[in-house]
Amino acid sequence: LAREATTEAVNSLERAKGADRHREEVRRQQAEVQARELKGKVIQLTVRGGDNGKLYGAITNDQIAAALKEQHGIEVEKNKLVQSEPIKSFGSYEVKCKFGYGIDGIVHLLVVEK
Prior knowledge:
Elements: H1 7-38, E1 42-47, E2 54-59, H2 61-72, E3 81-82, E4 87-89, E5 91-100, E6 103-113
Parallel strand pairs: 1-6
Antiparallel strand pairs: 2-4, 3-5, 5-6
């Protein structure tokens, strides 16, 4: 819907645009802080497995996010974690965290047998 371009309406629109830019900048800064917090962090998951180093299932993003919060106190939404392939065996892995705005972080994951 259109409004008459009064001085008050134009000023209101400019304030709204400024507030939007400020919110985006705050989100970008939060993403940068989270990426820096992840730097050098290693999380360890102890899971049950079968023969030949295979797991009974796959490591989920829920498990990774929960372990990150429990072991380091860092909260990352599970939908921001990106696995290049499903983790189905013991070993060391890198999981990418995409925070948006072109900002990524890396979580180092160590999967060990229970």
